[in-house]
Amino acid sequence: MTCPTRRERALALANAIAYLDQRLKRRGAEIRKFQPKASGAVLLESYDCGKNCLGCAHYRWGLWIAHPGRWPGGRTAFLCHRVRYPLRHLPRPGRRRTSPAAADEEAPGRVILLQVLISETQSLIRTRTSLVRALDRLRRANAAAKAALQVNTPGTAPHRPVGATADARPPIDPQARRLAAALDAVRTLERIDQRLLAIASDLRKTPAARRGRLQLRQTAAARWVWVTLDYTHGSRLRVPHPVEITDPGRRVHGDEHARALVRKARRLLDARRRLITTFANASRLSSRIVGRY
Ligand SMILES: [Zn+2]
């Protein structure tokens, strides 16, 4: 079963982070523009951790301090010190003037503008962090769901769907890597649904399931349910009326094959539920972010 909406949501998730990165790049340039390159400047820095992670690039704040005479020939060295709270390093009224922003006549206006820019940027970084975390949770839920798929297909070689080379050779570009992680979850959901369809059809063929009138069905809303067919309700024509149940194992008592099928299906349904919940939370977050900024 293909699901274009899920695909679109996966794209939105990866794109939302790329979108925030663009904004952060612009913010960083603006913050730089409003401060002369001199001792006391507070700037936004970005760096790649080199750990092949979903969160690259990472952001941090640097305070540039002049160290006179540090370099050969008595020249001044500018060193960047990492700071956690950039707003604390801006000049404040009544304070000793150490920042270049305070050195000229426009200083008060500049400082206020910098405060606005920096606190806005901090909020963007926080939002981005929560989005990367959501994507990371999705990736872990996806790994667990894939493991459930492997358990459920004994005898078959761990098969790789066509075009799924993401695991073998991770894309270098962080944006491509995030996109691959999101789309991989969509693929896993499709594979789980295919596997459940096959189990549902196998189960119908077992005598025990027929006797217990047990079926695994997918509803119009793409939800999987266990049902028994009830002939007592419904019309005179004895049209079976499906009744949803939660204890499918009891309906196939005594039939090892049918019971094994039910167990496999339940494991897959659990993995599917967890993956969908994580995916829905992550994409809700991403649409909220794109809506806000
Ligand atoms: Zn990184």
Radius of gyration: 29 Å
The average pLDDT is 85
**Looking across the biggest beta sheet, what order are the strands in?**
1-2-3
Query: How many structural domains in the coordinates?
Result: 2
Instruction: List the ions, cofactors and other small molecules found in this model.
Output: zinc ion
Our measurement of the CA-to-CA distance between the termini, rounded to an integer number of angstroms, reads 34 Å
Low-pLDDT residue intervals, each spanning 5 or more residues? none
Give the tags.
about 290 residues, 6 strands, binds zinc ion, three-stranded antiparallel beta sheet, 2 domains, alpha+beta
Describe the fold and architecture:
With 293 residues, the protein is α+β, with helices and mostly antiparallel strands. The protein folds into 2 domains: 139 residues, no CATH class; 125 residues, no CATH class. 52% of the residues lie in helices and 16% in strands. The chain has 6 helices and 6 strands, in the order H-E-E-E-H-H-H-E-E-E-H-H. The strands form 2 sheets. A 3-stranded antiparallel sheet has the order 1-2-3. Strands 4-5-6 form a 3-stranded antiparallel sheet. Helix 1 packs antiparallel against helix 3 and helix 3 packs antiparallel against helix 6. It is elongated. It starts with a helix and ends with a helix. The mean pLDDT is 85. The structure holds zinc ion. Zinc ion binds next to loops.
How do the helices and strands line up, and which of them pair or pack?
Blueprint lengths: L3 H30 L7 E7 L10 E14 L3 E9 L23 H45 L22 H31 L2 H5 L2 E5 L5 E7 L10 E5 L2 H4 L4 H37 L1
Antiparallel strand pairs: 1-2, 2-3, 4-5, 5-6
The structure holds zinc ion.
